[in-house]
Design brief:
Radius of gyration: 42 Å
Shape: elongated
Number of strands: 4
Number of helices: 5
Distance between the termini: 75 Å
Strand order of the largest sheet: 1-2
Structural class: mainly alpha
Order of helices and strands: HEEHHHHEE
Helix content: 55-70%
Length: about 190
């Protein structure tokens, strides 16, 4: 049941009880009524119905109070969460793996790292090598060995009215490098040695 339906049904129930009270007071100011083999005075009927109306009103007030408290709780949690995280880190850093000391704060010690097996290390090394080859990444020394030469420069004069620049003459690369990515051709043209 959604909260809107619940709200409507509570409001409808309260309105119905209040209407019964008003109708009883208007049409039965005094006397006695027999309902279900029991005799009631109009005042006792109103008292029973008013008790139900009072409960509805208290429940509604409690729901409103709970909603306000939940909103306050969420706001407080969002303010305190960074401090809580930092304080927990501080305690773990201070007491390390001291299970007894951390237990005093309700914290578990960090799990011990399990060392990799020889097979796992070999698999990780092979995967890293394959990734470097697939991406064409090189070491610092290999990058230093790559040099470029300027084969031609196109000079474009600057005028007061910008004109479209002529297309630069692009020479094809002499030969692709043995290792590494293909060279990027820009103005001026650069080829790999």
């Amino acid at each position: 049941m959604s909260s809107t339906t619940s709200k409507k049904s509570k409001a409808t129930a309260l309105a119905r009880v209040q209407a019964l009270i008003a109708g009883t007071q208007k049409h039965f100011p005094n006397g006695s009524l027999t309902i279900g083999n029991t005799a009631y005075t109009p005042a006792s009927i109103v008292q029973v119905l008013q008790g139900l109306a009072d409960v509805y009103a208290r429940v509604d007030a409690a729901h409103t109070s709970v909603k306000d408290l939940v909103t306050e709780q969420s706001a407080t949690e969002s303010k305190v969460a960074p401090f809580l995280r930092d304080y927990t880190r501080f305690l773990r850093g201070m007491f390390g793996t001291g299970a007894m000391l951390l237990a005093d704060f309700g914290l578990q010690p960090p799990k011990a790292r399990t060392p990799r097996t020889a097979e796992q290390r070999a698999a990780a090394k092979a995967k890293a090598k394959a990734t470097r080859e697939a991406r064409g990444t090189t070491s610092k020394k290999q990058k230093l060995a790559v040099k470029g030469d300027v084969t031609g420069v196109v000079v474009t004069p600057v005028t007061s009215h910008p004109a479209p620049a002529p297309a630069p003459a692009v020479a094809p690369p002499a030969s692709p490098p043995a290792v590494g990515p293909a060279p990027v051709v820009t103005t001026p043209v650069v080829t790999a040695k």
